[in-house]
Amino acid sequence: MFRRLSIESESAATGGASFDRRFFLKCALASGASLGAGGVVQPAAGMPAAAQPQQSDAQFVVEARFYDKQPNRRIKCKLCPRACVVGDKERGYCGARENRGGTYYSLVHSRVCAAHVDPIEKKPLFHYLPGSLAFSLATAGCNVNCKFCQNWDISQVRPEQIAAEYLPPYRIAQLAQQYGCPSIAYTYSEPVIFSEYMMDTADAGHESGVRSVVVSNGYIQQEALKAAYGKMDAVKIDLKAFNEKYYHDVVTGQLKPVLETLTTLRKMGKWTEVVYLVVPTLNDSEAEFTGLARWVKANLGPDVPLHFTQFHPQYLLKNLPITPVSTLDRAKAIADAEGLHFVYIGNVPGHPAQNTYCPQCKRLLVERVGFTAGKMLIRKNACPFCGRHIPGIWHT
Amino acid sequence: MSDAPHADRRDFLKRALSGAAALGLVGAPACAAAGTEASGWKARVVVARDPQLRGGGSSVDPQRMLALLDRAMQTLFYRDHPAEVWRLVVRPGDVVGLKVNTLGGRGISTSRELVAAICERLQEAGIRPADIVVWDRDTREMERGGFHAAMGGDRVQCFGTDQVDYEDDLAMWGSVGSRLSKILTRRTNVLISLPVLKDHDGAGVTLGLKNMYGAIHNPNKYHPDGCNPYIADVNMLPEIRKRLRLTICDGTTAMYDGGPAYKPESSWQMNGLIVSTDPVALDYTGWQIIERKRAEKKLKTLAADGREPKYIATAADREHRLGTCDPKRISAIEV
Q1: B217 partner at 20 to 30 Å CA-CA among A139, A220, A344, B166?
Q2: What tens digit of pLDDT does each residue of B78-100 get?
Q3: Considering the domain boundaries, does residue B266 fall inside one?
Q4: DSSP class of residue A251?
Q5: From chain B, which residues contact A within 8 Å (Cβ)?
């Protein structure tokens, strides 16, 4: 069992580090207090410490919803574009699904390895209920292996290798209400790999009046996308780069299916924001920024928020420096010039480009300090100064 | 007792290499090094069989297994007595990890009789029972494979990594970044790999090199592309490479298709062991045995099935040099 819990990658204030459990709880409680948050759920309470006997996994195991059975007890997973063909007793690439005698199972339903109360700005979702809290959770595993992953100690492990708490969907909905969170956020690791749990929890939340948002890499097959993300109220997609080579070499995935996800979400009418982590020398060329901005404008429209965020050396990519702010400024300038209306810079505390401005009159509409929305002037989805429509979900 | 106790590892290697020069025996990584061919060295792989391994029944006869092991090891190391052989591999004070493979459950795991025979010989070579650790990734999986968990006391230890966790820090080489089992890194200084001779739906075959997937926390990340180059890269991790002294592949029951899970319809009782200090040569030899069985069963070759175990060549290439897969440089000895 691992001893560490992680927090989400947008933790600029802390440098995005992983913490030991005691330190994490201390920090989380402190930040919760300063944010006025109701507190922090402690999945760690009662968790087995390292090297203690394993918990039974029976309560976490449900049959997967997206797969086909094949001859010789093999299965073909239909959840993500990797489409793993998995033999009996083996697991898919994600490590969270296992073939047991020709039936494919998710091993992570209700198996929460991280649960925090976060500001929605930390996802980041900037055009979705600013200043609100999200009851944020993750299970272990991921369907890619990004060399820069900040939460690799939960995303790149098997479920049984990390302490977890049994939190069924109805319990998550209760906790969200208890902690004053209008939304549940599926985040930290990769929610694609716990789609069944996400779908059931979204249903439980909606029955209780709690919304759901997902923070995802968008590496998912279309059928599963429509079924699972169809239940979401907002989606944030990490578009890791705008070239296939980077996806192959650094992400261990593919770009094309992610772009298809974005266009499908657009057709589905889901509120979507796009984050692009700018990694020095690997995906920071002007041509790539330009291509990205043009693609977003042409396929998603100019009003989709695009966040350029700062990279910090992590995991398998420690040989590169932190992204210079000047590079982020250049990316934003290019995207602005291409006609995108809401281009943000993230992971740089105090940067003015983390605020929302009216594209028409240029007045400040939402001021953000750290992960909080200090000032929120949008009224009835419009700029109070010039009346221009400001896209997003601004009010509960 | 012709050999004096080992002074240290360097001394062991020096004597093994000089013995190899005289006898045609080859040390593991060195056999793939530049100049090896010119020296005329060949990697030795011993394939030992006993058609009567199970007597008249279905279970393995422990005494015959011990005799089979002795025959294989004595042939490999050119020694007349089993105790001499094992003193070439270990010395008193070593803590020896026996990495078994129990994924296949009762049907096709490293056999308990083989492990018992090795433990007996290790103790005769001066290893304390408590300094022998039989391990795999998961204790419950080991129990399903027929092993009884044992931790503590003055007895042979037997447990999975789940009992002690993986290292927090990543070990990295090439395409691989993984946490290693603390059984490997903290409990043992010698590694003996005890895989099972099996077909594998992804890698083609799963033998000694792939057995090391059981030492890392994230094997699921390294199955794409026929596990190539991942298997070779995992074996390059220094904590593995510096400990691995011997591979004994269990062919008591083997599988020629449908692996790695146990499928009785695709298995056969080879009743044999494959032994080598060159893990690449051993994998190559095991692969050829599986191919012969597939041909006998009128199955396509693994290459024709799109599953040629390319990782073996990668393990032998200039970047890895973990051993040799050149059949001209492998001396496969059937006994």
Answers
A1: A220
A2: 999 998 999 999 999 999 999 99
A3: yes
A4: I
A5: 103-105, 138, 140, 162-166, 168, 170, 172, 177, 201-202, 217-218, 220-221, 223-224, 258-261, 263
